[in-house]
C-alpha cells in the first residue's frame, strides 16, 4: 500500500477546493484511506493519519472512528506518538464516552515517567478531559507532582489540581499541604497557576477561605513588587509588568477580603497604589483598574478608597472604547445603592451617555439615570429623561415611560408638576405606556381638587393638537366629562383661561366617536363623557341625539351604553343628576377578590372586581376566620361575599340601590362612567326593571346536580353560562328544608382553588322554610380561564330548633359541561 500523504499536503489540497461539495469529496476520500490504514494496523503511519483526522475534526467533519487509534498512540513509547495521541484524546474524547476510562492506566504510567515532557502531556490531558473517576484514581500522582521542585511540572500540576477540585471537591484537602510554599516560588508560571488554584479552593470552601486569609500580606507583597519594581521583563505588556498575574492576584484578594475587616485593612494601601499608579492609556491598564475597582467595592474598604474607585469608573465613561463605557455603567449601576452620593458626582457624564449611538450603552445609562433620581434633582433629571424619551428608539420608550411614572410618583415636588410630567409622557409616548397609567392619572387628577380647572384645560388643548395617543385621549375624555363645566366657565387660575363654548367641547368629543384612530375603549370614554355633560351643560337635546344614534352601533359595548343612557333620559330622568354627579376622591385599595377580564387601552388584562359592604346583622362577626377555617390550606382563593342592601329613600339612596353591590371606592373603571365598571357584565338598569340579575346569561343545557343532602337540608346547583365571557360559569344554589322547623340565620360559603376566581352574591333570604315550602337561592360566579375541572369546598351555617349547626363538604362531581 502506498504511503499516505502528509498532513501539510492534505491541508494544501483541501484549500484548493472551490466548493463545499468538492471539499466534502476530498475529505471522504481521505477518510476512506485512513480507515483502510487503521484496519490494516499500520503502525508506521498511524501518527500521521491521526494528525490528519484531527485536522478534519477541526473543520467540522466526523472523526470519532479515530478514538481507539489515539489510545494506541498514547500507549506507544515514542514521544511523537504520545503527543498526537494525547492531543487526539483531548479533542475526540470526553467523560461521556466510556473509552476514556481505558486511558487511566496509561496516564498513571506517564505521570510517573522519567521524562518531564511526557509527564506534562499526561497532566494536560487529565486537566482537560478527566472524569470524576479518573480524577479520584490519579489525584495522588497530581499531588505528588505539585510538590516536585521542577517548575515546568508544578505549573501544569497546579492547573490539573484545579480540574480535579472542580470534578471532586472532597479531594480539596489532599492538596492543602502542597499549597504552603507555592506563593514563595519565583517562577512566573508556577506563581500564576498557584493563584488560580488558591482562588478555586477559596471559592469552593469557607474553611479554605479562612485558612488562606493569612496569605493576604504575602499576596500584597507580590503585587507591590509587580507595581513598584517590575517582576520580570519577559512578561511585560505595554509597559505594565505581568498584567495577567496582577489581575489574578486582585481577584484572589477580593475573595479573601470580602466580609473580613482585618484582611480588608491589610490590602487597602496596595489597592490605592494600584489605582493611582496604573497607566490608563492602554487597555491593559484599564483591565487592571477594573479588577481593582471590583475588589475595592467587594471588600470592607475605606470610604475614600470607594470614592476613588467610583472616580475611576467615571473616567471610564469618557473613554472612546464602547466596551469600557459599558463596563463602567454596569459597575456604577451595581454600586449606586451603597455609594449614591459618590455616583451622583458623575451624573452629567452618565446623562451624556444617553446620547450614545450604541443601544446597550443607552439602556445602561437610562437605568442608571433613573437610579440616580432623588428629591433634590428630580426636575433636572426628568428634563433630561423626557428629552431622551422624545428622541429614543421605540424599544426604549416603554421602559423609559414606566421609569418616569415611578420617579414622578415618588419624588414629585408638586401635584401640578406631577400632572404636567405624566401628561408630557402621554403626549410623547402614549402608545407605549403601561395599561395602568390611565387609571393612575385619573386618580391623581381626581385627588388634586385645586388642579381640576388647570388639568381639564391642558388636556383639552392636547386633544386639539393630537388624538392619536389613545391613553391621553382617554384621560382627556374622562376629565372633560367630569369637569367640562370648569372648562367652559374659564375658571383656570394657574394659566390664562381659554374661551370655549359648550358646542366646541361637544364637537371634539363627537369627533373622537367617529375618528378612525379611536379604539373601542376610547369611544366608550367619549360617549360616557358626553353623557356626563348632560348634567353640566345646557345642550341636553344635542346630547340626547348623539346618544340615541349609538343605540344601534355595531360595537356591542357602545350600543349597550347608549341604550342605558337613553333609558336614563326617558324613564329615569329624575335619577340622572345623582347618577352622573362628580366622582368622589379615590383611594387606592388592594383587594384579593375575583378577577374578570376587562379591556384597558384596547388590550385584555385581569382586573379585580371589588365589592365592599357592611356585614349583615345575621352574619357571624368572625366570618373571615370561619372562611379561613373552611379553606383548610393555602391552595384556595378568597371569596367576595355580597350582601343585601337596604333601600334609602333619597335620590342618592336610589342611586346606591341602582348600583347594587358595586363599590365606588376603588380605582377608576376602564370606561369613565362613575356608575358601573365596564368589567361588570350586568346591565346598568337591571335593578330598575326587576329583570333577573344576570339577564345576559343564556341557558347552556347543563344538567343540575345535588351538592349537599344531610339533616334535612338539601343544596341543589343549576348552571348557566355567561354570554360575554364563556369562561365564567354562573351557578345558582337552591337550598330547601324538609324538616318540620325553619332553618334560620342560614349562611352559605364557598371556596375554590387558586386557578379559579369566585364571586358569591347575596342570598334571597337567610331563612330556609320548613317542609319544602320554599327555597333560598344564591348566585355564584366562577371564572375558569384554564378550563380545569371544577372543585369547590362549601361551608353551611344555620340555626335549627334553637341550636347552631355548622357543616363542611367538598363538591367534586360537577358535570363536565359546567367547566369545559
From TrEMBL:
Q: Where is the stretch described as Disordered?
A: 597-617
For this protein, the record's Gene3D superfamilies field holds:
2.60.40.1230, Leucine-rich Repeat Variant
Biological process annotations from GO: intracellular protein transport; vesicle-mediated transport
Q: Which residues form the GAE domain?
A: 700-815
Cell location: Cytoplasmic vesicle membrane; Endomembrane system; Golgi apparatus
The alphabetical list of record keywords is: Cytoplasmic vesicle, Golgi apparatus, Membrane, Protein transport, Transport
Is Membrane found in the keyword set? yes
Naming one, the record's GO cellular component terms include: AP-1 adaptor complex
Topological category with respect to the lipid bilayer: Peripheral membrane protein
Cited InterPro entries = Adaptor_Complx_Large_Subunit, AP1_complex_gsu, ARM-like, ARM-type_fold, Clathrin/coatomer_adapt-like_N, Clathrin_a/b/g-adaptin_app_Ig, Clathrin_app_Ig-like_sf, GAE_dom
- What family is reported? Belongs to the adaptor complexes large subunit family.
Q: What's the name of the protein?
A: AP-1 complex subunit gamma
Organism, per UniProt?
Stegastes partitus (bicolor damselfish)
Taxonomic lineage is: Eukaryota, Metazoa, Chordata, Craniata, Vertebrata
